[in-house]
Every structure is written in C-alpha cells, then in structure tokens.
Design goal:
Blueprint (H helix, E strand, L loop, with lengths): L4 H10 L7 E5 L14 E5 L12 E4 L2 H12 L2 E2 L2 E2 L3 E5 L5 E9 L6 E6 L6 H7 L4 E6 L10 H13 L3 H20 L2 E12 L2 E4 L3 E4 L8 H7 L13 H9 L3 E3 L12 E6 L3 H18 L4 E3 L1 E3 L7 H13 L5 E8 L4 H18 L6 E7 L2 H13 L9 E5 L5 H15 L4
Amino acid sequence: MRLYENEAKEIFRLNGIPIPEQYGVIHSIEELNVLKINYPVMLKAMVLVGGRGKAGGVKKVNNLREAKARAEDLFGLRIKGYPINSILLEKAVQEVGACYIGVTMDPADFNNVMIVSASGGVEIETVAKERPEAIHKAEIPGNDAELPKGTLEELAGKLTKDLGVSSSIAQKLADVISKVYSVYQSTDAKICEINPLILTPDGLVAADAKLVLDDNALYRQGELLEKLGIVGKRHDVAELTSNEQRAQQAGFPYVDLLSEDAVKDQEKLYVGLVPGGAGYGIFSIDEVANIGERFFGGRVVPVNFMDSGGGPSQNKVAEMFHLLMDYDKVDMIITSRFGGVSSCDVFIRGLIQALRERYADGKRIVPIYGRMVGTDLPNARTYLEKAKSAPSDPALEKMMIIVGNRRMMADVIKDGIEQAFKARGWN
C-alpha cells in the first residue's frame, strides 16, 4: 500500500527526519483563503504515481494570486490518466545540493539494500541504467529488524563516504540514512526513499518522500494507519492500469503484462488469456511465449494474467471475455477451463453470453481458441452443441472450443496461433 507524500513525510517527521514546513492539503481553491501561508511555497499534486514533476504536477508560487492560478491548473490536470483531487502545500526551500537515499529488498536473495546516489531529484532507475557507477549500495543479509549494535551506523557512514560529501554534513547525512532504514523496518515497508534529500543553507531536508507498505503486514500497522487517518487497506487504483481497475471492480484478479503506453508491433500477434485458475494462468503465459519462440519466430506476445477464481458467476465469466475483447491490443484469445471447483457449464454459458452481447451491440469479436474439461462437462457440452447447431449464429463464428481431453492444451494453443497467422497471411 503506497502512501501519499504528506503521509510519508509525517512518518519521517515522527522519526526525526527533517522535512519542509507543511501548510496542509487542499481539495479546492477556496481553501487557500483560510490557510496561513508564508510564501514562497510548493504546490504538489497528490497522486500515487511517479513522474509528477515531468508532468507539471509540482509548482512553485510566490503569492496567493499565483497559488490560486496554479492550483486551478493542477486540479484540471491528469497525470498518467489520473485526476488531481488534492494538493499538498509546503514551504519552498533553497537548494544547494541534492542526493538520493532509499532502502528496499533485493528480490533475488531477499536481502535488504541501502542505496544512495549523488544524483538526487531524477528517476533513480534511469541513473542506475545509464550511469551505474553513480549508485552506491550496502547490502544487509537477512531481514532482521534489529541489527548488531553499530552495524547500521557503520554502513551509513560508508555510504556517506561513497557520496564524497563534506565533513560538515557527513554525520547529519549518515544520521538520515540510518533513520530511513529504521522507518523502512518499523513500518514493514517494501520501499522507503527520499528523492531528493536536499542540502539547504540551514541543513538537510527531505523534499520528497516515498513509502510503500507491505500489504501482508498491515495487520501490524494499525496504530500507524490510525495516526495517518487511513481506515482499512487503501486500494492504490492510481497504480493500476485501466484494465486492472475494471477487473478489480468486477471482482477477479487481472494483471496487464504490457504498459498502457506500449506501442503495438504490427508484425506480432497479441494473445489475451482467460484461464481457469491462477496456476493455469501462469502456465498459459509461459506456454504461449514458448510456443511463439519455438514455432513462430518470437512473434507472439501474451498480454495478461487472469484468474477467474473458484466458482465464478456466468456474468463474471462474460466480463472476463468482454474486457479482453475491448482491449485493442488483443488479436485473439486463448482460454482453458479445467473445471474443478468451477463449472464448465457456467463457463461456456458466460463465454457465449459475451459473444452474443457483443454481436448485438456491434462490438469487436476476436477469435477464441480453447478447451474445457472437468466439472459439469456433460451439461456444458449439451449447451455448446445446442448453441452451435442453432441456425447460423454469427456471434459464435470465431469461437473454437474443444470439449474433453482429446487434445493437449499446448496443441490447442499452437493450433490457435497457427490459424491466426494464416488468417493474416503470415508464414
């Protein structure tokens, strides 16, 4: 669960990390009239995505007139597609220098890693890619909240030396690095960072703050969440794609494998996946990618992970297919219903419902290849045969579903992709 900047900064303040003077968070321009503000101030759009500065979401203003004008601009802005509903106001500070400080976990071995860089105020991922020598790390084996006495201070001191800062601020910088690590541990965070930590004529100040809490440990953070005024788990919809938001509202797990701004390669086939469960969903991604590499020159792209969950309703099954056929990157759909808890009968009714609804509404229908086997298979077979035997139902022309175990799923996937390639005249 990602916190807003003002929430993360409040935690920093409580832990002795210096932050700019805070004037509050507004939700309307009128609120500026009642705040006691010493200008100049920074207006910061409150969104749970990065890249605010580049998108024009951070403005410096020198008086109330400018503040109202810039606040109106921000409230009318969308950053990565998301509207601005609130703005943080804080004192503008004079920057003499800047650096980056962060703590996270290395997914390769689950060791905590403290990271610093003299390149503060820019995307640290870009720095790491283009100038890896500018990144300094200290790895801490294990995930013990309590380190041996002196260990944290020693590592922070080493990182401070790596940055090559002057002796006049070295101790203060090492102290901030240590406190960032302490916040990371005490809040059960996945990442804790300051970017930038700026040097002002008066000392060090955390000009920005990012804190992402581990959802699995929120039960231990009740007191902290209460202090911040957060009730229950926050769904970070600002970090979801539009497809992921739609799936969340419909009640089934879904993950886009491509970014929303990814450009479609017209020489490749993009395959949407509607599997029967999470395990089958992962298998489907791997199998589509592997078959694409082995037989089709790497020109096949799986676009999503999906899980119908146990016993989805007919309407939910229909929405799963609607979502992928509304997704303009999808060229075809591979589906597999291995009915254990879930019913093959409900599955095929939901699929046919989606196709007939789309045909009636004049919406796009893409080819669907798949197989179903398991619970309620006789009823599913009967319903499917009756639907396909009806006089010329054009809604079902692009649906090719195999019933039973007569063919391996890998072969169904290969055949489906092969047919799609032939339809396009590709070798």
